[in-house]
């Protein structure tokens, strides 16, 4: 294999990375997962989104700091430098598996949204068709992938903004609808905190899944031009937008529809527009939902294939995954992701009703573990920097350590929650298997 085949290309522009960070975090988690989080916490779920947003801010700042201090290294490389090859092996494979699961979730979600128009077509068939489309996009040069993601993510962001404006107009009576007194929905049905703070923390693992994907910029470092200058600016702008794009729509949804009547069968966004009598708007929103979740699946295929490539280049995955085509695409990593994605889409055939609640909790747990590793890696690596970078995590070392502890508590809460029993067994099983497999890896070379 020639040397030019072994490296990825620096073809991602700042606008690509900025929209990748937003696009990776705005998918099923908001458009379909909000029904799950609202059922767990009621209107108080906005506190789950705010707490998760603050945790994410620390994690992303840690990535930016390490990327500037140790240029040319991606997120997994930081973890390897801090904790050694065995830990990076487990975290790296967990992240690749997580993104594959996320991709499956997203294409099944896309299939379920397509059933709004094609109710007689089986969910698994629609999901497989969506999977094939996403795989095709990822066979292109990374620059074109970035361009697709730019427009995919841009469309769903525009539609979320329009939804916020339209929903706020209905909520405040500016836009007339068939019902009034929407604000009573915040206090009716057991109040704003129907399940107390325990509900807020129960929803947190799903919310972290929703925000997961933003850290994808930590993998894109090696394919981004001027990453050291670009990342801090992106992070400062992206975090606030992500929190806003979640909290404002959730507040509007809980205002327009009683929280305990929101169905998990379709998107709360479509339900809101239907309830408000905007049937044409519901059709348009459904189209946007499909492009939105496919955008997140697009990011997922990118994330899993790049992590497999990173694992292979460090001897932690089969060497064939390190092969890169002339277009800059890790071909066999993408092929492996494609097989898993199409196979996973068929899960919808076996359990279409419970598939989302089972699958969504697994990436939430994995993202929590990854975020903990990033925070602790930053704490450990800072003393090894040749010089302090111009961008630093605030409140070092207290803030990153507290963030890691809170994420750890959230993982424990998740593990002891009866609703997550199936997801817990799967998540722990993956961790145990990878920990055992890491022991058979070749010894780390200094």
Descriptors:
446 residues, 18 helices
Q: How would you portray this structure in words?
A:
This protein is mainly alpha-helical and 446 residues long. It contains 18 helices and no strands. It is globular, with a radius of gyration of 21 Å.
Kindly estimate the percentage of residues that lie in beta strands according to DSSP: under 5%
How many beta-strand elements? 0
Strand pairing plus helix content: what structural class? mainly alpha
Write the H/E string, N to C. Answer: HHHHHHHHHHHHHHHHHH
End-to-end separation in angstroms reads 24 Å
Uncertain stretches of 5 or more adjacent residues? 1-6
Number of helices, counting only DSSP H or I runs of 4 residues or more:
18
Name the shape in a single word.
Answer: globular
**Mean pLDDT over the full residue set:** 79
Q: Major beta sheet, specifics?
A: none
Task: Offer a concise description of the structure.
The protein is mainly alpha-helical and 446 residues long. It has 18 helices and no strands.
List the helices and strands and how they pair.
Elements: H1 14-25, H2 28-31, H3 33-41, H4 45-69, H5 75-83, H6 85-114, H7 123-138, H8 142-171, H9 196-211, H10 217-220, H11 227-256, H12 268-275, H13 279-313, H14 331-345, H15 347-350, H16 355-381, H17 398-415, H18 421-438
